[in-house]
Design goal:
Layout: H1 3-15, H2 18-25, H3 29-43, E1 48-49, E2 56-57, H4 59-80, H5 83-86, E3 91-97, H6 102-116, E4 120-126, H7 129-137, E5 143-148, E6 157-171, H8 185-188, E7 195-196, H9 201-210, E8 224-225, H10 228-236, E9 242-245, E10 258-261, E11 267-274, H11 281-293, E12 306-309
Helix pairs in contact: 1-2, 1-3, 1-4, 2-3
Length: 310
């Protein structure tokens, strides 16, 4: 049994397609299939269910994949130890970001990292917070950038706040909020808010910011969008209003929208999260310090603190 065979098995579990898994592993499909047969023969176990249209895992195969992921993550960390001798922030780093941040933060983040740490290669994973937390716990990613506090499971994670991202109100053209330089909370509380679907942390932050609850949103026409861009288009079409984080507000104007800040300056806190005892903890702390000092336009700096979240 080799690490290569385990990588092939994990790739097939993720892609559920021999061709796509082979492509991800940079081998031919016959090679991948042959190596997986060898792994099954060695273990004396049927790991794959090949009877359906797409390959699946047998129950014992699921257990093997779960353990293989942890084993491969540990092996990758051993390989990364060589970077500790050659300098900070080099090699591959798996980083996760939430969907309400990634499209707007990455265009600023990636050039900064490329300039400051040219030997660092970021492997980006865009997932909702609960999925990123699972990947952190399973050692499938090194670090996540999320809204704090997040639903982080045990074991405890290290958190470092980076910045506060203010909320803006977006409304259709000629909406009453156009008369305000900044929208008061009592006005916001009366607006029909369009929200992201359940599972997005921004949904809860938006309701908290305006003092509303889930029950107040049900008026017979309850939109649950899966992205901020969908919400932007719904608002432009006159379906309601929404709250947008500062980085998602287009600085040259949002065509077809009225966008105003909140008078009380409500915001969400963005921070980095990683596992305690990570072999590259020094690198992760350096990256967090860099991202907390060099900020994109529109966010608020803060005095950062390092904490362990339960």
């Amino acid at each position: 049994m080799t690490l290569r065979e385990l990588r092939y098995l994990v790739a097939l579990a993720e892609h559920r397609h021999f061709g796509h898994a082979a492509e991800a592993c940079h081998v031919t499909q016959p090679t991948l299939s042959t190596q997986l047969r060898k792994l099954e023969d060695y273990l004396g176990l049927a790991l794959l269910d090949r009877h359906g249209k797409q390959p699946g895992l047998t129950p014992i195969g699921e257990l093997v994949v779960e353990r293989a992921r942890r084993l491969l993550a540990e092996a990758d960390q051993i390989l990364e130890l060589k970077n500790l001798r050659s300098g900070p922030l080099q090699g591959a780093l798996n980083i996760g970001l939430i969907p309400t941040l990634a499209p707007y933060y990455l265009p600023w983040l990636l050039p900064l990292v490329r300039q400051r740490y040219p030997k660092l290669r970021l492997v980006v994973h865009e997932e909702m917070t609960r999925h990123l937390a699972d990947k952190l716990a399973d050692q499938l990613i090194d670090v996540a950038i999320v809204a704090l506090p997040g639903p982080l499971p045990q074991p405890a994670f290290v958190e470092q706040a980076l910045f506060d991202e203010p909320f803006f109100v977006a409304a259709p053209p000629q909406h009453e909020i156009a008369a305000y330089d900044a929208v008061p909370l009592h006005v916001l509380a009366e607006l029909k808010l369009l929200l992201l679907t359940d599972g997005h942390c921004l949904r809860g932050h938006a309701l908290e910011a305006c003092g509303q609850h889930e029950s107040t949103q049900d008026d017979g026409c309850d939109f649950r969008a899966s992205s901020l861009e969908t919400l932007r288009q719904l608002v432009a079409a006159g379906m309601g209003c929404t709250l947008m984080p500062a980085l998602s507000v287009r600085r040259r104007g949002d065509s077809g929208l009225v966008v105003r800040p909140l008078a009380q300056g409500q915001s969400r806190r963005i921070g980095m999260v990683w596992r305690p005892g990570h072999p590259r903890a020094t690198d992760l702390q350096l990256l967090a310090d860099t991202l907390g000092d060099a900020l994109p336009d529109g966010v608020r700096p803060l005095r950062r603190t390092l904490a362990t979240a339960a």
